[in-house]
Design goal:
about 375 residues, single chain, Porin, globular, mainly beta, 16-stranded antiparallel β-sheet, disordered N terminus, 4 helices
């Protein structure tokens, strides 16, 4: 079956199944909130068969326009929601995507909250073919390549004492085949293809004091990871990668939520060009600014309007650099934009919406489920 046909069928099945799980006379109680009469999927998500179907465009500038879809299952019973259980729910997601430049992928993942939030598990798998562009650092050159990959992630972390501090381990593996198009128009110089397995293992440590993992209003989230890639864990090359990631949310008034994000990524060793850290900001294509290290700052303001609607304004700046070269030799890049949110599931405090973002030489729009800063 062609990949396009698969995604069309997936979209139709997801949309149709929402209205087949329950008889027609029960739809109102499942999708309309009795408090304000607004559209709300909290009770449907908390039911035995409940899931949130997402069918949305892919607007990542590096991949071109496309479509992605799949079901998101949120595992939390309605009694726990009503009594205000502070632990985050477990999630399961399945999906596929296809874009206009021929990129496609299928994947799924599970975020498990076990033993009354004493253990947090994360597992994900992805198989796909991505057509991307590489921009060598500080050179006026670019070339296109295809990355065919089977990727796996396994992470487990345990709560330390009674505070929300978790420590554990993380393993990542990807089996990749890279095909680079002919860079120079020279007879006899054809495309170049090679295979590269990457396997890395290391510790993970994070502190999570957000009031909500979907769309936080206040709190702090700090995470540090380190991965060592080596042959003994399945890698063809040896290198190291570290990431420090921090989020802060404040709710100074009833109508404003302020968010701050800071991130430092660093790598060293025989790291392949496609695995190097890159600037991750809305409005900037993936891999556009890439080097051995990146430093990122971003802020987002959410203005609560009437009812469930809110407006977002955001902006940030980042730099991809080589620590062995003068920091000032590399340029800062920026993004800015705006969007809106709708509180689609009040009991889960889950907002969804769309953002429009601009960078130095590109722009994009992004459908948001929860928060733009949520990640694996």
């Amino acid at each position: 079956m062609p990949k396009q046909s698969f995604l069309v069928l997936l979209t139709i099945a997801l949309l149709g199944s929402c209205f087949q799980v329950y008889p027609q006379n029960n739809l109102k109680s499942q999708f309309i909130d009795s408090l304000d009469g607004a559209l709300d999927v909290s009770y449907f998500l908390a039911s035995v068969y409940g899931f949130l179907p997402f069918v949305m465009p892919v607007t990542e500038p590096a991949l071109g326009y496309g479509v992605a879809g799949g079901p998101v299952f949120i595992h939390r019973d309605i009694k726990a929601l009503k009594r205000g259980d502070p632990s985050p729910p477990s999630l399961t997601i399945l999906g596929g995507m296809y874009t206009q430049n021929g990129s496609w992928g299928l994947g799924g993942g599970h975020s498990g909250i076990w033993k009354h939030d004493r253990i947090r598990y994360l597992g994900a798998a992805f198989y796909g073919s991505l057509n991307l562009t590489y921009y060598p650092s500080r050179l006026p050159l670019e070339f296109k390549f295809n990355l065919s990959t089977l990727s796996l992630i396994q992470q487990v972390a345990f709560r330390l004492g009674q505070i929300s501090l978790f420590a554990g381990a993380r393993y990542q593996f990807s089996q990749t085949k890279v095909t680079i198009e002919r860079i120079l128009d020279i007879p006899g110089l054809e495309s170049w293809e090679f295979e590269n397995n990457l396997g890395g293992i290391g510790p993970v440590l994070f502190l999570d004091y957000r009031d909500n993992t979907f769309t936080p209003n206040k709190g702090v989230y700090l995470k540090g990871t380190y991965s060592h890639y080596a042959p003994w864990v399945g890698s063809h090359v040896t290198y190291n990668q570290a990431d420090l990631y921090g989020l802060y949310f404040a709710n100074p008034t009833s109508w404003l939520v302020t968010g701050l994000r800071a991130e430092l990524q660093s790598s060293w060793g025989e790291i392949p060009f496609f695995a190097k850290p890159y600037v991750n900001l809305r409005g900037i294509p993936a891999l556009r600014y890439q080097n051995y290290s990146t430093l990122t700052f971003e802020t987002e303001e959410r203005f609560n309007l009437t009812g469930r609607w809110s407006l977002t304004l955001f902006g940030g700046f980042a730099k991809a650099f080589n620590p062995e070269v003068d920091f000032g030799e590399f340029n800062w890049v920026y993004n800015y934009g705006a969007g809106f949110r709708y509180e689609i599931a009040r009991l889960f405090k889950l907002h969804s919406g769309i953002d429009f973002a601009w960078g130095p030489d590109s722009w994009g729009f992004y459908l948001v489920f929860g928060h733009s800063w949520n990640r694996l």
